[in-house]
Write a structure and sequence with these properties.
globular, 7 helices, single chain, 2% strand
Length: 164
């Protein structure tokens, strides 16, 4: 983690993450091998990792791709870069988009307040939207399927540059 002045703060428990990751995979492997054949366990493991990676990729791509990128010379301030460079995903009726994105469908707020717990990002969203409106900064928010379509349209436009 970083402090407010751009300096790295030492972790309180630096070995906790690697130890817990090893324990997780040992536990997962044991459970799989106790309930499945080796072939089923290997298949399940690789399919679950691929699907999880795909879901994470879609979540990150929708939140970030196809948004403005700034040159160092004409880059606006921190808050404006965070707002303009990210796309929020609106909640649907069933709450799928919040679940699918792991609670990071409020990407704008997450970029502005990276240390804020995900469950609180929605609480400050109206304030951030009002601040953006007051200062004339575009606040972009869309549904998940529309965000995917926007990213695909952007990638199509970029590929036109290569095709021409």
């Amino acid at each position: 983690p970083w402090d407010g002045g751009g300096r790295r703060v030492p972790l309180k428990y630096p070995t906790a993450e690697p130890v817990l990751l090893v324990l997780h995979y040992v536990w997962l492997g044991a459970l799989m091998l106790l309930t499945m054949s080796l072939a089923q366990a290997v298949t399940f493991f690789f399919l679950s990792q691929c699907l999880c990676g795909f879901f994470l990729a879609v979540s990150f791509v929708v939140g970030h791709n196809g948004m403005p990128v700034f040159d160092a010379d004409d880059k606006p301030g921190f808050a404006e870069v965070q707002v303009l460079g990210t796309r929020n995903v609106d909640e649907d009726v069933m709450g799928f988009s919040g679940w699918f994105t792991g609670g990071l469908h409020s990407q704008v707020e997450h970029h502005l307040f990276p240390m804020m717990p995900r469950h609180n990002l929605g609480r400050i969203r109206p304030r951030v939207e009002a601040m953006c409106k007051r200062h004339g900064v575009r606040y972009h928010s869309t549904y998940l399927h529309t965000g995917v379509a926007e990213v695909l349209d952007f990638l199509d436009e970029m590929s036109e540059l290569i095709r021409d």
